Amino acid sequence: MSRLKQALESGRFVVTGEIGPPKGVGLDKCLHDAEKLRNHVTAINVTDLQSAVLRIGSLAVSTRLIERGLEPVYQLTCRDRNRLALQSDLLSAWALGIENVLCLTGDHPILGDHTEAKPVYDLDSVQLLKAAGTLNQGHDMAGHELESAPSFFLGAVVTPAAEPPEPQVIKMKKKIEAGARFFQTQAIYEPEKFELFMNQVQEFRVPVIAGIVLLKSASMAKLMNANVAGINVPESIIKEMEETVKEDRKKKAVEITARIIRQVKPFCQGVHIMPLGWDELVPEVISEAELG
C-alpha cells in the first residue's frame, strides 16, 4: 500500500516534497535533489511539464524514484493527451509500481515555451479522476473490462486563496465525488484565509495537504502575485524579503516557511513543501516548523 495513503489514513501529519524533471535526459541532479528529501518526507511530487515547459516526463522520473526506494506522487495533466493516452499512461504507471496520482488539468501551452503547441484537454481534472477511478474498478472509460485493475490513491488540487472561494468549494466537492482521496493546495501565504476556507470544507472529511513555495526573493513573490492565479503573498512578507540581504535569503525563506507551517498545521493533515531547487533547506524547514 502507498505510504502516503497509510500515513493519511492513520491520521499522521504528513510532509510531502516536490522535484521538477529536467529539460533534457540527464537525471543526476534531479535524483540528487530527491535524495535530499529522503527520510524527511513521506512522498515526492514529480511535476508533469510544469508551466507547459518541455521537460522529461513525470512517468520516467517517478519510476526512477521507485527504483531508489522513494515514493512518488505522479502528476498527470490533461493538457497534452486524449483519453486513450491518459488511461494508457495510468496503466503504465501502475505496472511500473506507481500508486499515488495527482490529477491536474494543466497550464495552457500559451504560457509555456512551445506557444504554438495545440492543447488537447479531451478531459479536465474532474473527468481524469473519474477515468482513473473507473480503471480502479476494472473498466476503461468506454466500459470495457480490464484483464487486471490498478488501485491508485488519487489526489487533486484546490486553491484556498481564490476569490471568491465558493467555486473552489464546489469544484472540490466534484473532485471528491469523482474519486479524489486527498488534496494538495496551491501555495499558501495567508494562514487566516486558509483557516476560513478549511472551515468551509471540513464536512468533506478528505485530507488536505497545505502547499507552500519557498520564497527566494521579493521579486519572486511579486512575480507570483502578478502571474499565478490563487496566490497572494502579503505585502508584509514581501517587505521582509526586501529587507533581507542576499546572503541571508535562504535563512529568511526557512523562517517564513516554517512560520506559515506552524500557523496552518492545526487546520490541515499535512504540508507540501515546494523548494524550487532549494531542496537542501527542507530538513531545516521541518526542524524549525517543529514537524520532526
Summarize the structure in words.
- The protein has 292 residues and is α/β, with parallel strands linked by helices.
- The protein has eleven helices and eight strands.
- It has an eight-stranded parallel β-barrel, surrounded by six helices.
- Helix 8 (218-227) packs antiparallel against helix 9 (235-242).
Decide which structural class fits the backbone: alpha/beta
Give a count of the beta strands, DSSP E runs of length 2 or more: 8
Query: How much is the average pLDDT?
Result: 96
**Series of secondary-structure elements, N-terminal to C-terminal:** HEHEHEHEHEHEHEHHHEH
Which band does the percent of strand residues land in?
Answer: 15-25%
Separate helix tally? 11
Task: Please compute the radius of gyration using only Cα atoms.
Answer: 18 Å
The coarse overall form would be globular
Distance between the termini: 23 Å
Helix share of residues?
40-55%
In the sheet with the most strands, the strands line up as 1-2-3-4-5-6-7-8
* Uncertain ranges: none
The biggest beta sheet is recorded as:
8 strands, parallel, barrel
